[in-house]
Amino acid sequence: QVQLVESGGGLVQPGGSLRLSCEASGSSFSSTFMAWHRQPPEKGREVVAWITSGGRTNYAASVKGRFTISRDNSKNTLTLQMDNLTPEDTAVYYCNTLAATWPWGRGTQVTVSS
């Protein structure tokens, strides 16, 4: 069974940067569309960025130009570089397939506050 482990969150001031990482066990990672999802406080989960198995990327309008998603299929890792963070980016961040078909990991908390 696939396991997802997210890391890299923390407390950062507005305008700051963080780099999130996700390690995925299982052999199907390289052939799967992967995504970063987030759940802000008291709100539903949303997709913020996704990447095809071949490396094409797409972003939600709210993060486009500030976030960069990437993957290393040789290491089964997914990364999210987040720049120019705002308080509205505060959320628990999760990696999963684009359709969220794998068991959720614990996520990593990102808090943007001065």
Topology:
Elements lengths: L3 E4 L2 E3 L5 E7 L9 E6 L6 E6 L5 E3 L7 E6 L4 E6 L8 E7 L10 E5 L2
DSSP strand tally: 10
Rounded radius of gyration (Å): 13 Å
Proportion of helical residues:
under 10%
Q: H/E series, N to C? A: EEEEEEEEEE
Distance between the termini: 40 Å
Number of helices: 0
Low-confidence stretches: none
Q: Give the helix/strand class.
A: mainly beta
What does the largest sheet look like? 6 strands, mixed
Q: What would you call the shape? A: globular
The percentage of residues in β strands lies in over 45%
- The average pLDDT is 96
Strand order of the largest sheet: 2-10-9-4-5-6
In short:
The protein is mainly beta and 114 residues long.
Protein model, in words:
The protein is globular. A hairpin with a 4-residue loop joins β7 and β8 (77-82). The protein starts with a strand and ends with a strand. The mean pLDDT is 96. The protein has a 6-stranded mixed beta sheet, with no helix packed on it. Strands 1-3-8-7 form a 4-stranded antiparallel beta sheet, with no helix packed on it. It has 114 residues and is mostly beta strands. The chain is built from no helices and 10 strands. Helix content is 0%, strand content 46%.
